[in-house]
């Protein structure tokens, strides 16, 4: 069976989408689904290509038991729409930027990540880059909830076996 491929997308791929990547990857592992679901992340802008996740994102992740040390930023490419099944954007600007490069024969579904955490009543994961540490705490709260909702959605739609 081919893997279900999930791509988390923000602007720089150093704050929000690496946090979503690390948390969702951990959820997949906890549910024994690492053979069935693959996770990656990318940014709509190329400012930070090759960089590690922001130290504040890594610190907040570490404090909750997630490891982001292995992640390096890359840019979202049109080819990603052919290779991934689900592309999740963190905010509306990311969604529009992704839509702009989506090829006509895209196979990926382009979705808003926070649609999977309706209990928060927030529509966008706010960009924490220019703010303080508390922004990263809030991003992590949103990301953990949306990761749970997304995994439930994917498990409902696909027949997945834990291994
Ligand atoms: P991210 O945050 O999109 O969550 O990775 C940002 C990172 C860098 C910049 C903006 C947002 N920047 O302007 O460099």
Description:
This protein is of the alpha/beta class. The protein has a single domain, classed as Response regulator (Rossmann fold), CATH 3.40.50.2300. Helices cover 38% and strands 13% of the residues. The chain has a 4-stranded parallel β-sheet with strand order 2-1-3-4, with helices on both faces. The protein is globular. The protein starts with a strand and ends in a 6-residue tail after the last helix. The mean pLDDT is 97. The site of 4-nitrophenyl phosphate (4NP) has 11 residues, from loops.
Q: Share of helix among residues?
A: 25-40%
Poorly predicted ranges? none
* Average pLDDT reading: 97
Taking all Cα atoms into account, the compactness measure Rg is: 15 Å
Strand line-up across the major sheet: 2-1-3-4
Cα end-to-end separation? 13 Å
**Main beta-sheet strand count, sense and barrel state:** 4 strands, parallel
Please write the string of helix (H) and strand (E) elements: EHEHHEHEH
Q: Approximately what portion of the residues adopt beta-strand conformation?
A: 5-15%
Number of strands: 4
Which class best fits the helix and strand makeup?
Answer: alpha/beta
- State the CATH superfamily name: Response regulator
List the helices and strands and how they pair.
Blueprint lengths: L3 E7 L5 H15 L6 E7 L11 H9 L16 H4 L2 E4 L2 H9 L8 E4 L20 H25 L6
Parallel strand pairs: 1-2, 1-3, 3-4
Helix pairs in contact: 1-5, 2-5
The chain binds 4-nitrophenyl phosphate.
4-nitrophenyl phosphate binds next to loops.
